[in-house]
């Protein structure tokens, strides 16, 4: 299988979460070209795909997960294989993730592993979140692995370099949507209206004190408001406003405390500015916490096989793979792709040489590691 060609085919068809119809179709078509078809079973779940590779003398089931969806970003790479879906791009590396998973499947069908292996092509990682419903599905439960691992590309690391750490790798995350409802009016008569631009602005400024004054300085949390919507014309007082943002915290207790503080601030705004507020936390992702034993086994494998690796710091990024690790022991690691542009940037161009390296690392760990 020409993995570079496969990656470019995926890159051309990024799709939103739970709408990965073309992506699922391409995965199924590529699986049909694999050798030793009798060595695997295939299931579909929503727009996802589950593949089970039969072990020669299984004592457990090893899980490997990859994500599938694209992002609502207009691509600006100028590549000849750039996105054909206007306004969407594989700007988080899921095209590489899927390609590596397919390369691993092909390799394991040629060189049978001892244990059973289940590969999960999971939809909707970027939202609204596919990991938790997949985890709860009958399709997954019938093939539930005993251990599970995954990778994520890292633009900041040299191509093929592994970065990993025991314990917390990615933060707990939550979307944040807040609507402010007041009363609009004429700009010349502000006393007859309840200005929601003012209310929302004071709320945004007040949020900054939650992290600086309510979160333990030894702990970590972030509240970001990335979008403000309010008003229709320069001389019309806005009767409504909407804030959209994100919350990130390195432990679940801090996340819950931050949410309580946000709600308290909203109540205070209601009293002070005579308005109503509505809060929606949208998608919530659980922290990615790497289990010690499995992470140590992977590090030992990298050392033994000569794969360059580094211990990394925790990041405030979010990944719904954390839901799998909450229930099943395992880990996630970064794989360097040496790109000047970072994740979620319209000019992201990962080094495609990382694909072969990724296949070698993940298949080798299953075949030669002690997982």
What does this structure look like?
- The protein is of the alpha+beta class.
- The protein has two domains: 3-170 and 287-368, Aminopeptidase (3-Layer(aba) Sandwich), CATH 3.40.630; 172-284, Alpha-Beta Plaits, CATH 3.30.70.
- Helix content is 34%, strand content 26%.
- The protein has helices at 3-11, 21-32, 94-110, 131-136, 138-141, 196-214, 252-273, 292-305, 322-327, 353-368; strands at 40-45, 48-53, 61-67, 116-122, 147-154, 162-164, 167-170, 172-181, 185-186, 221-230, 236-237, 240-249, 276-280, 284-285, 288-290, 309-311, 330-336.
- It has an eight-stranded mixed β-sheet with strand order 1-2-4-3-5-17-6-16, with helices on one face. Strands 8, 10, 12, 13 and 14 form a five-stranded antiparallel β-sheet that branches.
- Helix 3 (94-110) packs across helix 10 and helix 6 packs antiparallel against helix 7.
- The longest helix is centred in the last third of the chain and has 22 residues, at 252-273.
- The radius of gyration is 23 Å and the shape is elongated.
List the helices and strands and how they pair.
Blueprint: H1 3-11, H2 21-32, E1 40-45, E2 48-53, E3 61-67, H3 94-110, E4 116-122, H4 131-136, H5 138-141, E5 147-154, E6 162-164, E7 167-170, E8 172-181, E9 185-186, H6 196-214, E10 221-230, E11 236-237, E12 240-249, H7 252-273, E13 276-280, E14 284-285, E15 288-290, H8 292-305, E16 309-311, H9 322-327, E17 330-336, H10 353-368
Parallel strand pairs: 3-4, 3-5, 5-17, 6-16
Antiparallel strand pairs: 1-2, 2-4, 6-17, 7-15, 8-12, 8-13, 8-14, 9-11, 10-12
